[in-house]
Amino acid sequence: MTETQEAPNDRATTFQAVQGNKGEQYNGTVLLVAAYAALWVVLFVWIALVWRKQSALNARLEELERTIDQAAAKADKKGGG
Fold it and tell me: Is the CA virtual torsion 67, 69, 74, 78 positive or negative?
């Protein structure tokens, strides 16, 4: 073996924490809460968009029903008069 290679028996067999910059590590709880918060935000935005779209569809449906009723009333006046 060369000087840079270690024999398998020379290696550490226990966990040794890495010393250094800890700014890049995040607590698992923080990541979990952030993931759930992001999920809830996406869910609420989606519900708001669906609600808004449904309101627009309801308004359009009411407009179409009024138009049909007006056309039916005109047809009744022409046919009955």
Answer: positive
* Interacting residues of 4 by C-beta distance below 8 A, sequence separation 6+: none
Copy the structure tokens of residue 33: 């809460």
Query: Does the residue 39 lie in any domain?
Result: yes
Question: For 5-47, what is each residue's pLDDT tens digit?
Answer: 666 677 767 877 777 666 667 889 999 999 999 999 999 999 9
Instruction: Return d(Cα 6, Cα 2) in angstroms, integer.
Output: 8
The total number of structural domains that make up the chain? 1
Task: Say what the pTM is.
Answer: 0.56
